């Protein structure tokens, strides 16, 4: 009993010390000193009064909160504390929270504007960025085309961190919105990226303008276990990969891709789950669905409508899956590896093409199950490259073929495909299914206080 009382008193003492520190824009030096001191305690809050906090430079946010009592750096009034100008924000420690801040016309000193680490080996864990906005954050000294400089907005490192209910839009210079970094000593990330609104990203004209990338080619055989769910990608058209997955055992589910020129791409890595995502392209140039490379993926219950490039693309490989014995100088990790042991089931492809076997290489897909999918629309777009070599790697089972031309299925040249589909009438209820999926995304994302996001949501609701 005595030991229990001592523990209770220690717990009460710990939480009773929580303090709130308030700062004005003229207090930047004192604020920076406190945030980086390491003296903040669980439950402490650093509160920014209304105003513009300009050119913070390099600033560290560190400390050790506890579950249920994070150390929070927040705006007193959401969106009215504006951070702009030169910035290198380093977040590291445990249970830290960045909340309701507006990063507007800020830009990175160096590479990552917001970085979840101090240095190699000193990372963030159980930290959260929530209700924040990053808008129009572009280094004025860099151009908007390839080879004119780049910067990343958020570099996510460490373990068990979360980015949620944020708004990101109007990135113009090169580089990513959000990079999940992996390394040999820090790759089981278990990050959660959810309920964010990723707004307009205009075409960049080259590689390196993804919205989210999980890993890199050199770390692609490592597990990240990052979850990306319930986000909206609205006119995210920087390049042909909106989300580029370059690691293993990630889950991407219930996201909405709306009028975005690009697709969800399993570029490197294995055993990723692509589930219950919705793609609405309105036949705009470059809009796409899902591209599959590598092995062990599950592609389940996705709804892909009116995309111009492809609804589903399964690529041929150049090399086999890398092993510990692979000479990566001869078989580089940046290349394409064989598609194998992939399950594609219960998806809807509406006025969107199926493309099997595209790309250069001789490693044909192997053991790909295509089952219980609905292929429908005005007319079928089915492209099979080198069919005699590609089709033996597929099993078509209990799929539905729903097109106005009753003879369109029998006109398919390949018996293996014909026998794997049943010609049916277009199922009723697709419109309602689409509405429910869109509503579930657009009304649950982002910071409700940001006017630009509300305008984007209103557009989707009006012109869906």
Automatic annotation (TrEMBL):
InterPro entries: Pectin_lyas_fold, Pectin_lyase_fold/virulence, PL-6
Keywords: Signal
Signal peptide: 1-18
Record carries keyword ATP-binding: no
Gene3D superfamilies assigned: Single-stranded right-handed beta-helix, Pectin lyase-like
Keyword Signal: yes
Regions crossing the membrane: none
Protein name: Right handed beta helix domain-containing protein
Native species: Bacteroides oleiciplenus YIT 12058
Lineage: Bacteria, Pseudomonadati, Bacteroidota, Bacteroidia, Bacteroidales
